[in-house]
Amino acid sequence: MGAALTMLCCAQAKAADLPSWADPKLVEAAKREASLVIYSSINEEEGLPIWRRFEDATGVKIDYIRGSDAQLIGRMMIESRAGRGAWDLVLITAAHKLPPQMLAQIDPPEAQHLFPAARDPGRRWYGFSANYNVPAYNTNAVKASDLPRSYEELARRSDWAGHVVVNEYDSEWVTALLNHYGEDKGRDLLRSLGASLKPAIVNGHLAVARAVGAGEYAVALTNYVNLTLNVKLAGAPTDFWAIDPVGVFYMQVSASAQAPHPNAARLGANFILSQEGQGLLTKRGRIPSRPDVETNPPGVLKALHAKKVMPIVLDPEQEKKADALFKEFIVGRPR
Questions:
Q1: Residue 8: pLDDT band by 50, 70, 90 thresholds?
Q2: Any bridge partners for residue 255, and if so which?
Q3: Residue range(s) defining the domain that contains residue 254
């Protein structure tokens, strides 16, 4: 009787020591699996400290494989065709493009706190970090009082020509403009932006953010807010400004239908969607996918959601169309 009571008390004490996102029974099941294999497009310098917290809290060892979306999707497709269950969780922007049968349907309890657009109706992916598309500027080169209040006004700033930069493609931004303005007016606006601003084309959204922060360009036609904040937090004179529409898409976490460690996968997904996991993501400027987590710096979600936010999820054909329009009106304009 005394021994049983002692064991019960020990079990209750261990459960009390666990964070709120860690269901004790799931933790025990994950511990028996011993490890969690993560495929992620987040660099190791940022990602590993976050998942080290998961290791410390659960005792489950992390095996972290980093690659680009394209690299990881290619790898997962090959493994799937070979019938190999090699990974447990994937954290990329394009999980929704994977064949549904490759992804497990899961219900992380923490997902109920996400923005609705961050929850896949099919329960195969959940948004854990938000990419909002808005312009950015160098605060030493442009005064906040001089910022255009609409894309129409921005398209009239021909005096900025030669001082504007953009990534080589921005499918979600194009789609948000077309959805907001309508097909014809949206195309006309894209044409005007390209012709008036003549933006330089740079390979990589982070490269765009760093170029504006360094003063190489005064303005980014559009970029991901989290990357602008990443450069700002590093001390550069840069910031974003929000104008309608604000396109948003999510980095997605999905569990493999062939996961070698399915309980660890469910536990890991719940962790990265929790207040704690989301808070750790904000250290480098990432934007949380739940409204009850403050941004870094504070107030970013409030500023963005004061505008018309348009969630974007593109299938391959929609992405191809948007990329073609971007190349035609922004990249391929007469120089």
A1: very low
A2: 89
A3: 19-130+249-284
3-state secondary structure of 95: helix
Residue 206 host element (H or E):
helix 205-213
Q: At what angle are helices 171-181 and 183-197 packed, to 10 degrees? A: 130
**Do you find a cis peptide bond into 19, omega within 30 degrees of 0?**
no
Query: How many domains would you assign to the chain?
Result: 2
Query: Are 72 and 47 a contacting pair, CB within 8 Å?
Result: no
13: pLDDT confidence band, cut at 50, 70 and 90?
very low
Q: Return the CATH number at 174.
A: 3.40.190.10
pLDDT digit string, tens, across residues 37-48: 999 999 999 999
How distant, in Å, are the alpha carbons of 70, 130, 247, 255, 315 from that of 101? 19, 25, 29, 11, 16
Residue 301 and residue 278: Cα distance in Å, rounded? 13
